[in-house]
Amino acid sequence: MASEKLNMIEQFKNLDILKVDRRTFLKAVAALGATSFVSMYGTQLADALAAFPQTKVLWLHGAECTGCSESALNAANPEFAEALSNLNVSLEYHETLLAPQGIFVDGKLVGTSDLNGEILLDELVKAGGYVLVVEGSIGNGPDGTGKINMIGTHTFKSIYEKCAKNAAAIIALGTCATYGGITVTDCDTKKYCDFMGVNQTEDKKGGMNAVLGISNKPVINLPGCPAHPDWFFLTVAAVILGKINLNDLSGILDDDGRPKVFYPPNNTLHDNCPRRGFYDRGVLDERFAEGGCLWKVGCKAPYVHADCALRKWNNGTSLCMQAGGPCIACVEPIFPNGSMPYFTERESAGVLFGINIGTVAALAIGAAVVAAGVHAVRRVNKEK
Ligand code: SF4
Ligand code: SF4
Fold first, then answer.
1. Which family does it belong to (predicted)?
2. In the chain, what are the domain boundaries?
3. Closest Cα partner for 140 from 78, 199, 197, 97?
4. pLDDT tens for each residue of 55-94
5. pTM for the structure as a whole
6. 367-383 and 357-364 helices cross at what angle (nearest 10)?
7. 2-240: what fold?
């Protein structure tokens, strides 16, 4: 894997990244990760960004755990504040980060009361020209009132509506904001709460934007529970540098609104898993911590489209399967319902993500690979 990365670095070494076409830019972004990307092109980026006006970001929190903010704060090389500064981004509003900074931020009152935050937000919305980052789903229940999801005296639905309508673009960050995520987990109160993603809820297109009649905003989905900091910062960089045309996102997003460079439609996580050799040889663990492939203890990676296995987490240190945990498909639209039970082999479950496993297999990884996988599983079972 290390040599694969070195080859990529060699391949992109002498590029003037700002002059290359969008496809090559996105390829470099996907292949290198934020750390290598910024260290390789830092000077070029700094020069280019000096000519750009500051990009304003408004970051809202709906129904969520703030894990995606924490994930962004875990970014390394560059760190969160450094990345914003490198990208000439001004984080104008973020409820969990701005509040502790004191009474004044840039001369405006914030954090002293709900009201001050509200005044600040209204001023920013009125001025317009910002990228809206939405973290968390948006409550529509009960009965379309949105009152299940209040911030101060306002529904989050109404706060989202005013911010979304005046935004230049919307980034839905994390699986709650993109598809509902953990807030749409099947339970007795799911219908009553009616949580929604920005543009989609589970596998149903539309989301809160359809309810509010917002149809003309560019929306980029960056799912993940949480989302990877690289996915966020590199998307923001590509937007700011004009490498993503907000008026035409069709070529770069997949059917679920995700950038194909980070969530490749033609590859699965399983392709590059560090445990893949065990899978191919049929060394399938029956219990955790046996050191082999995690398929039989519930790994969903053969059905998942994300580059976690190449990019890895915590500054390129590890990823779920490497650390011994099966992939639970946290980037897919119908996480978590479709990937439960988490620790049960999927072939034995018969259905995955709500549809027949054969259909998913053909769509997601190709019949040949599934056949090989099923064969490996069956072979081991037979031998026992
Ligand atoms: S099934 Fe999971 S643990 Fe096994 S090789 Fe594939 S991705 Fe890795
Ligand atoms: S490996 Fe799977 S569960 Fe882990 S972060 Fe990636 S998509 Fe999510």
1. Belongs to the [NiFe]/[NiFeSe] hydrogenase small subunit family.
2. 2-240, 269-383
3. 197
4. 999 999 999 999 999 999 888 877 888 888 878 889 999 9
5. 0.86
6. 130
7. Rossmann fold (3.40.50)
